[in-house]
Amino acid sequence: MLITSIHLRTLRSLVQRRWLAILLLVLVFGVLWLDFFSLPSSPVTPELDPSWCGALIHFSAQGLQFGKDVVFTHGPLGHLIAFVYTGELFHARVIWEFVSKTFFAVILCVTLFRLPAFWRPFFLFFVLPFIWADGTSDALYFLVISCLAALLFKQGSANPALVILTGLLLAVFSLIKFTYFLLAIFLLTLLLAFYCKDRKPARALLLGFVFLIVLLLSWGIAGQQYGNLLSYITTSLDICLGYKEAMGIPAGGNAIILTGLIAALLGLLQCGLILIDSRQPSVLFIGLFLAGETFLSWNRAFIRADDHVLSFFSLCPIVLLVMWIVVQPKPIVRYIGYTVNLLVFVICLFGIALQRPNALATSLGDTVRRLQANWTVVTGLPTATRQLRTQLTAAKSAHALPRVQAEVRQQTIDVLGYEQGIALLNDLNYTPRPVFQGYSAYTPALITANTAFYSSVHAPDYVLFKYQAVDNRYPALDDAGVLRQLLLTYKPLFDEKGYSLWKRIQPAKPIPSASAAAPESLALDSEHAVPASEQPLWLQLDIRQSLQGRVLNLLYKAPIVTIRVTNSFGHRTSYRIIPSMASSGFIITPYLRTSRRVLGLAGGAQNVAVVSFSVRVANEARRFFQTDVLCRLTALPDIPRTELDEQARRMADTAVLEGDEDLQDRLMEAFYASAEALLSLDAASRFEGLTPLNQSQFSTGGTGLTITASGADPQILLPRFPTGSQGGAVVRIDLEVPADTGFQVFYLPLGVPGYGGHVINRFLRHGANTVYFALTDSQLAGGQLRVDPGMSAGDYVITKLEVRATPPDSLSGR
Fold this sequence. Notes:
The protein is an alpha+beta fold. It has 26 helices and 25 strands. Helix 18 (421-425) links the parallel strand 1 (412-416) and strand 2.
């Protein structure tokens, strides 16, 4: 009886533990599924990221050919991870969410319960709150691929169903985004080698066969022609390789880069440890995969080092965990490896906090809110869909362009700039150039493809134009070949809500160069004169990397190159320049700084010229470039004159109201048009009359006046100056600021006792800036001007402060 009782208690305990495990598994599956589920929550809008996302959905719905008609970082199934709603292909997106996230949750549950028990809480802790840290799906897809790798290398060839599932998912992923394609091909190569090494060629054939068949089927289902598949791969590779040089931006601080580098190196160290400990094929291949995945995710995150870095910090620790599914090292190696893994967790948490200081404190609450929101969507899908339709209708109404719609009707139109969403919201016959966001045409081949489109019978009848550059690039650099074609074969008709509509006035054809000067060699930082010309001048720059630079670009990214231009007023401005784009050429003069100047050039109005330029690299980065730059200046044909020129000139006169760039442009011209100086302060005058206020201390040197701010609200008081004879004044200040910051000028109108809301606001970027602002005599009559140079502690350096009298009619918008 005693033995029977013991057996019954044991059996009951086993049953209870089994049911507890099943309950826990169901709970984890449900939570992961809800966390991963992600449908669009807002409609497409004419902003940068929503525009390209909405455009990709539209292109897939219209059956445009990726690799031929469309060249981007996403593929023909990119709409499956779209984060905006356009009303197109939404049912496919819903089905993909339910099916794919079920598979993802199953894969992660299997991974979780195959991990050593010690690591399971760590795995869940990072997946749930941080998998969406940077707002994209990249970390999730990378994690799923990594889990599949670990499970396959663990089970070898024993599970054909897992092999089939892996081949299927890798094939679909490859057509969603090219980054996924690269990681999928890397894993596929390692798996095929692993199966061949393990003498299981049947499994290798099965995996390769499933991947290839599903890839081809998915390509066809997406409406793509099979003859374009190779073109999709080659053009995507081109855009991927050019991304480093063109789209790289620095991190928020060196500490973030150092933290990411330490985490990556520790991850590679962990992979090295397991390779030293074991020579088993499964260990070798999982180590190679995780090392490659760590390098790829680190590069992806830290090239454009904004919130992208969060995806690396969120992904790195949990990806490294999956190796313990495959690896069973000796105790000493296991203890060292576990310690390294724990260090990576701590370092990555620190990195997340550096990039987003409140992320750790809000992570739990954000996760709960995401789960609640997803539950509401899943249980009320019809209601959520109706809300999206209502929001889309409201967005179409808010961004309607009735004059454009009436003019264009069903004729073809392209959008220059990065706000393609405006064409979708107005239901225009949007016919894009291949690299539809011009800032992404950053290799000679991509630039040639766009230019060829505008030189062919496929060129659009109309162009909706908004002059936009990213990352402080030289204004005429993005899509320079298309801009050239626009000026020579189209004319502007009218403006509507900040967009100018251009119409093709002659058949599209390649534009020949009028004349070309012999190439010249130019040393970095040396000034090169631009000859006066009645015709636009086209500049090509061959900025070559040294051997060190090529190695750096392979492992990370090349340093930033700038061009400093001096205009005909003597004003100097620095911009970022992309060497691969500059090698194809761009308009250097006239100085097309704003849309107003582009419209003026189209209408034959006088324009500001560039009289010289220099190519500049930071001193510490010189070793990464060759010392000489090869440059070639070419004269373009004259802009054709038509009866539409007068309209273009009128549009140029009113374009100043469009934004701060146009305003600063107009104020600069008004400043240089005046010869009546009211105040001039520089290093020679020792900035006499300036007074430090709140949190500010002054020191003068050879370069200018240094304002050391001990807090976030430094202030300086300008000396009084006469109002002059023209009724107003423009103030110019040249200054360097320690960070991106707001800049304010407070003024006192006559009879007003305090500054209050009498303020002019500007935004300044880290480094050198020239800022203009204007005031009428009545606004200057009440007292001295107070300048708040920034909103952060640090050193601010003023190199020049000058005031010139101008008439009030030149001060529109101030």
